[in-house]
Amino acid sequence: MTSPAEDTVSPEGHVVGARPRPRRGVSLADAGPPIALVVIFLAFAVLNPSFRTVGNVQNLMDAAAVLAVVTCGISFVLMMGSIDLSAPGVMGASAIAVALLVENNRNGNDLGLLGIALAIGLGAALGLLSGLALVLLKVPSFMTTLGVSAVGLGVATLLFDGVQPNIRDVRLDSLSVERFLGFSYLAWIAVACVVVGWLIQRYTRLGRYAYAIGGAEEVLSLSGVDVRPYKVMVFTLAGAFYGLGGVMVTSQLGAGLVQAGRGFDFAAITAAVVGGTLLVGGRGGVLHSAVGALLVTVLTSGLVQAGVSPYWQGGVQGLIVVVAVAAAVYPQRRRNQVVK
Question: Residue 33 pLDDT more than 50?
Fold first, then answer.
């Protein structure tokens, strides 16, 4: 990370450019979410001794798995300064698709891993549709992804056809049941997704351009970069993550449900924002959002175990989102003179 640029002067006394100076230390925006995660966990551990047991930590990781995967996908969209509300529809379509492609009670299909891959591919295809509608039709991402979510729910409803498909595939079912080093395979899949997402963000052109589009899309375009393909690729990647999330929910429930992704759009945006990924783009990323997913999960579980009313839980979560957004944009308050 760098601090504001420092002008360099030529021997003739002319200013020739700006040289960024390295920023020393860690900013409060980066350190805040991990600190908040530790503080909230310790607070609930003091209130309820069972909260700090190994078993509860394992349950927290399992509970955060699907949210973390979905948040990985939405983080790339948020880094571009866009909004993605397609997760419920994409997850629903992928959930029904995988339930019908693996061994189930409705048909004779038994595609196994290929069925899982096809369901994730369906999610990627719906994400591709979001990206194409954005760049070709010039429709704001908010409306584009909301429409694609409706398309996904429509596809899921048609595939559902009034009869719930229950899975009988041993491998898919074992993802949420069997454990490795104390954690379910779903938790390890989530960890792998976070690592892969971070590698894409850190070491690929797609990740770097996602940041650049969110920070200064006009400057990137003026430099000769066609940003449209990268926008489409980001939405396609996000759709693949949502599709995987739908597969994971199906493994947890043992059946394909049209509403498998219900509420994950708001939950993922909440996790990303709480973790430090800005809604206006240009800051944050997968690791930030993963911390946010854990924070939201710990908070929700802690409130449940503390006996707090579900009505108060929603209010507390909403308040945390507002505080997190305010804290994130506070350092940029002078630049953001106009609030839209």
Answer: yes
What separation in angstroms does the CA of 313 have from each of 59, 64, 192, 300, 326? 19, 17, 30, 7, 20
pTM: 0.85
CB atoms within 10 A of CB 30: 16
Which residue is listed with tokens 């003026």? Answer: 222
Number of CB atoms found within 10 A of residue 189's CB: 20
By three-state DSSP, how is residue 6 classified? strand
pLDDT digits (tens, 9 = 90+) for 51-62: 888 888 999 999
Report helix, strand or coil for 167.
strand
CA dist 22 → 2, 26, 282 (Å): 4, 11, 18
Q: What phi, psi does 104 have (nearest 5°)?
A: -150, 180
Q: How far apart are CA 65 and CA 71, in angstroms?
A: 10
Please check whether residue 173 is in contact with residue 254, taking contact to mean a CB–CB distance below 8 angstroms: yes
Tell the burial category of 312 from Cβ atoms under 10 Å away from its Cβ (0-12, 13-18, 19+).
exposed
Q: And the tokens for 197? A: 């997402």
- Per the CB < 8 A criterion, the answer to whether 302 and 51 are in contact is yes
**Can you tell me the distance from the alpha carbon of 237 to that of 257, in angstroms, rounded to the nearest whole number?**
23
